[in-house]
Amino acid sequence: MRVVHVRLDDQDIKQIDRLVKRQSFRSRNEAIRKMIKEKLSESPNNEDPDENVEKLVKSMLRMKKAGGGTCRVEAERAYSAASKYNVEFDDHDIRAAMKKTLEYWRRKVNLSYADALGYEVAQRMGMKFLTGDEAFKGLENVDFVK
């Protein structure tokens, strides 16, 4: 095993600390290691093209080109291409997602609010929710892929 130094902004550190406090992980190090391993193990062939557009755009904005500038043009193109998949959500969806997230946290299951919102919107629209998140395994109208 090798040591790799990682630079995180304050918001990311606060989020990791909240996970540790909720006992989803024993330490910051464990949380970061597991999150990185999980992300690396995901197969790009199983990803839905419109999945997590916000993360894609943010990561592209953070990348540095050889000249030192950010990839804003590429990020804008990626967002524009995926924006046709945008779906409106309402107050009912937000409240249902908050309730589902809280319900799972009480069971010590790490369910992100964004995933819960996606699930609730899919339920309302009568669509299947495609995910690889173990928290959704066995729920109604979920296509679970790994």
Describe this structure in words.
The chain has helices spanning 10-21, 28-41, 53-62, 72-82, 91-106, 113-125, and strands at residues 129-131, 142-144. By secondary structure, the protein is mainly α. The protein has 3 domains: 1-41; 44-86; 91-144, no CATH class. It has a two-stranded parallel sheet with strand order 1-2. Helix 3 (53-62) packs antiparallel against helix 4 (72-82) and helix 5 packs across helix 6. The longest helix has 16 residues, at 91-106. It is globular, with a radius of gyration of 17 Å. The chain starts with 9 loop residues before the first helix and ends with a strand. The relative contact order is 0.08. The model has no long low-confidence stretch (mean pLDDT 76).
Compose a concise summary of this entry:
It contains six helices and two strands, in the order ααααααββ. By secondary structure, it is mainly alpha-helical.
Task: Give the SSE layout.
Elements: H1 10-21, H2 28-41, H3 53-62, H4 72-82, H5 91-106, H6 113-125, E1 129-131, E2 142-144
Helix pairs in contact: 3-4, 5-6
